[in-house]
Design brief:
Strand order of the largest sheet: 2-1-3-4-5-6
Radius of gyration: 17 Å
Number of domains: 1
Number of helices: 5
Largest sheet: 6 strands, mixed
Shape: globular
Distance between the termini: 19 Å
CATH topology: Maf protein
Order of helices and strands: EHEHEHEEEHH
CATH architecture: Alpha-Beta Complex
Number of strands: 6
Strand content: 15-25%
Length: 203
Amino acid sequence: MSTPRRFTGRDLVLATHNRGKLGEIAALLAPFGITVSAASDHGLPEPEETGLTFIANAELKARAAATGTGAPALADDSGLAVAALGGEPGIYSARWAGPSRDFGLAMASVRERLAAAGTTDHRAAFICALSLAWPDGHAESFEGRLDGTLVFPPRGERGFGYDPIFMPLGYEQTFGELDPAEKHRISHRARAFAKLVAACFQR
């Protein structure tokens, strides 16, 4: 198995147009003295996500941003996987929110589909893939997962996306209610990030 490539710079492009993700990942990278900018800050369009897995889509986005800026880029592809829905919405989590990114609509769709399935199984997981790519096309990718249950109606105004309906195992608050520092500590993104740091950032 080859040794992971180390990141030795101080500037990193985050391949996203989602300001919520930018804030979370910038906070995770801050202790390393790394300055993060978003792909949208560089005028880059969002590439079409044609991958069939979280990692494939993360790599696609990271390579597009690295090629477009000539700088190393980090991409996140994450979503909600609901057990009773066969893992949906999964890699299509953002698409369930429609072109206006209305996650109220997306959360309502999850609830409606569970009701249509006639199930009381509300097990779910947040999954995050992180891919760090360089302009030469090389990429290092890692995945994190956090299991939990869905609660309805949505609770809390914190976080973004599906956070108000996701309650991690061992907690009585949703990600929409949880203190942001605690969410960052335990999240699927934090778990993927820990693997990325161990492989690529520790010197």
